[in-house]
What does this fold into?
Amino acid sequence: MSDAVHDLRHQTNEAAVLLANMKDIIGEDADLIAATVEGETNLHEAIAAGLTRIMEVEALAETIGATMKRLGERKSRFDAQSEHIRTAIVSAMQAGELKKVEHAIGTASLMRVAASVIITDESALPSQFFKPQPPKLDKRAVLAALKDGDAISGAQLSNGGVTLSIR
It folds into this structure.
């Protein structure tokens, strides 16, 4: 658990205890509650530290994602280069009528590959070659119907919740 989360939990508990002890004095006055929490706890500072940490980790995650993308692209280039070299070696060995070439770094051998299928027009294939697929639930359609007030057996709307918006 990060320090920001630990501090947030600690300050949240302190604010809850403070408000529970002061409820008779403060009442339901939102401004007085906010002023009391701000003045008597470090909850605002803990939230600010949490927001700062969110920005830091999101920036790190974004950087890692960009690095992974670049490395993935680089891997693809190396894979393509390897495949081009393999093709060139096969051509060279075939041209030299060589079945096997031994070197200290490794042995290159030409081997027969079993035939594989190439689909040129999937829509022209007879239905016997297709596997039946189970139906897939369209959750968006269920959500839309529930929001329109339809009663759907086996589904209901959640109560929603609260999320954090950071701008």
User: Anything to note?
Assistant: The chain has one domain: 3-147. The longest helix spans residues 43-95. The chain has four helices and two strands. Helices lie at 3-26, 30-40, 43-95, 139-147.
